[in-house]
Amino acid sequence: MLNQSKIPQATAKRLPLYYRFLNNLYLQGKSRVSSKELSEAIKVDSATIRRDFSYFGALGKKGYGYNVEYLLGFFRKTLDQDENTPVALVGVGNLGTAFLNYNFTKNNNTKIEVAFDVDEAKIGKKIGDVEICHIDEIEEKVANISVVILTVPVSEAQTITDRLVAAGITGILNFTPARITVPEKVRVHHIDLAVELQSLVYFMKHYPLEVNQDEE
Q1: What pLDDT, in 10s, does the model give residues 23-78?
Q2: What residues make up the domain containing 52?
Q3: Is the same domain home to 117 and 134?
Q4: What are the backbone angles phi and psi of residue 74, rounded to the nearest 5°?
């Protein structure tokens, strides 16, 4: 049995990227793919791809490449894509509204089911097919949800986080600049768009694209 805890985090972060590309190949009717083709498509060097795949055993054959259908099924199971993951969104501002309109249309297993805000003008309305509820209903509405996208003002981030954790949320995708504090049982991924943009500009200026940055 595969021990997921032994998979490097850098490899784990690339798995959804592999899965998405393989799914596209499968929909195009492709039966096999080489590490070189994967490398050219997703911009990760072939040595890194082979090393990533090696953690999962013999997934391909030398001179043949990888069976797309088999690999897709393997990563679907590894990423729990056969299970539906309902998500809640807290904060229906410009970014939150964009998320609701998009709502992971290319991933049928992950979907925002409910959204929360404090603006009375938004309460009870729908964006896409997602109803916007008042923030006071969080504890009741997230009873069967474990993942939240947080797009609230910085000043409210920690307070809302504390309520989410108390309600049983165990995963938070934090789009606020605030570095929220959570118990060890809760996983938080921070995505600060301003920082990411600054980082991109810095790397463009100081690090020529001689090696793939994802290897680090």
Answers
A1: 888 889 988 888 888 888 888 888 888 888 888 775 666 666 788 888 888 888 88
A2: 4-77
A3: yes
A4: -65, -50
